[in-house]
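PROTEIN DESIGN WORKSHEET
SECTION A - STRUCTURE
LENGTH: 102
TOKENS:
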């Protein structure tokens, strides 16, 4: 009843939800891809054995695979890049010196 799909963040260790928390109908889990950064330096063969794919930044918005089973290339779309730029630019704070302060 929830328009085909709902998003629920769960850890990989949690039992998948069997029923929709909103409408109560049966659901099944679809695991989404996630991009994470590991802290420190982990050998590529170790991450591959754990099921991760390691990418190296080739150019802006483009990452090439250096180890693992994943796709050879990750590339952001023009829209992705614009979204990233928009997030990096903090909204300008406007202070009106002529405004009356009570
Ligand atoms: Zn629902």
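SECTION B - SEQUENCE
RESIDUE ASSIGNMENT:
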């Amino acid at each position: 009843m929830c328009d085909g799909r709902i998003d629920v963040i769960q850890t990989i260790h949690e039992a998948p939800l069997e029923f929709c928390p909103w409408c109560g109908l049966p659901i099944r889990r679809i695991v989404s891809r996630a991009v994470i950064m590991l802290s420190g330096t982990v050998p590529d063969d170790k991450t591959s054995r754990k099921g991760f794919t390691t990418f190296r930044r080739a150019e802006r918005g483009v990452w090439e695979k250096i180890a693992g089973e994943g796709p050879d290339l990750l590339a952001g779309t023009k829209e992705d890049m614009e979204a990233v730029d928009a997030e990096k630019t903090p909204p300008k704070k406007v202070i009106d010196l002529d405004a009356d302060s009570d």
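SECTION C - NOTES
The two ends are 51 Å apart (CA to CA).
Residues 44-88 form one domain.
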